[in-house]
């Protein structure tokens, strides 16, 4: 899964882009303490560790 695909899933579920720090984009959702940090490296796939962290923190499925 690429950054663009993950971004689309997050935005569809109410997560909002709040900040870009270097090559990482941060998303927040009202009422959730977790900040989703997603690396943006062009068309490269996100690592399994990043996807599992996003799934655990957001409660969404990225697979």
Characterise the protein shown here.
- This protein has 63 residues and is α+β, with helices and mostly antiparallel strands.
- It has one domain: Hypothetical protein (Metal Transport, Frataxin, Chain A, 2-Layer Sandwich), CATH 3.30.920.
- The protein is 33% helix and 24% strand.
- The chain is built from two helices and three strands; from the N terminus they run αβββα.
- Strands 1-2-3 form a three-stranded antiparallel sheet.
- Strand 2 and strand 3 form a beta hairpin.
- The longest helix is centred in the last third of the chain and has 11 residues.
- It is globular, with a radius of gyration of 11 Å.
- The chain starts with a helix and ends in a 5-residue tail after the last helix.
- GO terms for molecular function: endonuclease activity; hydrolase activity; mRNA binding.
- InterPro entries: HicA_mRNA_interferase, HicA_sf.
- It comes from Alkalibacterium olivapovliticus.
- This is Putative RNA binding protein YcfA (HicA-like mRNA interferase family).
- Belongs to the HicA mRNA interferase family.
Beta-strand percent range? 15-25%
Would you identify the CATH architecture? Answer: 2-Layer Sandwich
Which topology does CATH recognise? Metal Transport, Frataxin, Chain A
Query: What kind of sheet is the major sheet?
Result: 3 strands, antiparallel
Report the structural category: alpha+beta
Domain module count: 1
CATH class: Alpha Beta
**Helix-strand pattern:** HEEEH
Residue share in helix: 25-40%
Strand order of the largest sheet: 1-2-3
């Amino acid at each position: 899964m690429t950054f663009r695909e993950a971004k689309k899933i997050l935005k569809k579920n109410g997560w909002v882009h709040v900040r870009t720090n270097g090559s990482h984009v941060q998303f927040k959702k009202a009422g959730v303490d977790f900040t989703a940090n997603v690396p943006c490296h062009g068309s490269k796939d996100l690592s399994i560790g990043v996807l599992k962290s996003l799934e655990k923190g957001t409660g969404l499925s990225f697979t």
